[in-house]
Amino acid sequence: MIDIKRTVPYSSIKRTVPYSSNLGLRNILIKDFRSLDLRQDRGHVFENFVVSEIFKKIKNNKLLVTPYFYREYGGAEVDLVLEDYKKQYRVFEIKLNQIKKINSVFPHKHKFDIISSVNYFQVINHL
């Protein structure tokens, strides 16, 4: 069975983003087993991995947060928004390579984190 999770849109744009909790099955479906450094979709694979790990953390620790995807009509987006029961937001931009600075486009007051291959473990552990 393929376990696909979707983040619902926070904005009025009606688009969900699917994430597979099993990257091996994802690779079977798209027939690509090459090393990550040889793949054109390596950024998507990394984003899928990070989001699936965050979903596991939410479920296993019974965190009271709702995950969202946020995108503006102009195309600007953030990869993941977590909203807690107090309407406090944590916003994540997920990039395979470390980036020094990105501006968040999320309109509400929030804590913003850039998750990269260098810091993903620490960020997920401190959710």
Give a short synopsis of this structure.
The chain has 127 residues and is α/β, with parallel strands linked by helices.
Walkthrough of the structure:
By secondary structure, the protein is an alpha/beta fold. It has one domain (4-125). Helices cover 26% and strands 29% of the residues. It contains three helices and six strands. The chain has helices at 23-30, 42-60, 120-125, and strands at 4-9, 17-20, 65-71, 77-84, 89-94, 110-115. Strands 2-1-3-4-5-6 form a six-stranded mixed sheet. The two termini are 28 Å apart.
For the termini, the CA-CA separation is 28 Å
Report the count of strand segments: 6
Order of strands, main sheet, comes to 2-1-3-4-5-6
Mean pLDDT: 85
Beta-strand percentage? 25-35%
Stretches where pLDDT is under 50 for at least 5 consecutive residues are: none
What coarse outline follows from CA principal-axis ratios?
Answer: globular
Radius of gyration: 15 Å
Biggest pleated sheet? 6 strands, mixed
Helix content: 25-40%
Q: Total domains, how many?
A: 1
Structure annotation, total helices: 3
Element order: H for helix, E for strand: EEHHEEEEH
- Structural class per helix/strand content? alpha/beta
Write the SSE topology:
Elements: E1 4-9, E2 17-20, H1 23-30, H2 42-60, E3 65-71, E4 77-84, E5 89-94, E6 110-115, H3 120-125
Parallel strand pairs: 1-3, 5-6
Antiparallel strand pairs: 1-2, 3-4, 4-5
Q: What brief labels describe this structure?
A:
alpha/beta; 3 helices
